[in-house]
Amino acid sequence: MRAMTEPLQPSDIERLVDRFYDRVQADPELGPVFNPVVADWPEHKRLLVEFWSSIALGTRSYRGNPMAAHRPHPIREEHFGHWLALWREVAEAELPPGHAALFIRHATRIAQSLQFGLGLQPRRGVVRTLPVIGD
Description:
By secondary structure, the chain is an all-alpha fold. Helix content is 60%, strand content 0%. The protein is globular, with a radius of gyration of 17 Å.
């Protein structure tokens, strides 16, 4: 692990993604969700490095739709808490604290967005409804 004062590097993201998804593949809760649908893990990891590089480094190298990619799979609300706990554990083990915190914040927001988009979590905040007219 590098010192926290050094800038985030693509190799940091590659290491994080590689270690994390190795853990996902072996995980008794997440593995059965992802292993049947990922035919080529090295290629999938490459795509995820592009995704996280676009988010953390602004590379704009990712071209895809995470919501559409996750929609057809048997993902349940409880998977998100487990996924985030595993992500936190790996990020904190592989990255300096400041970089780990950045990736954990991003992952938390992404998880919330996916949960909402997949219909697994009600939208929080102000709920605006249309008025009923004519009753």
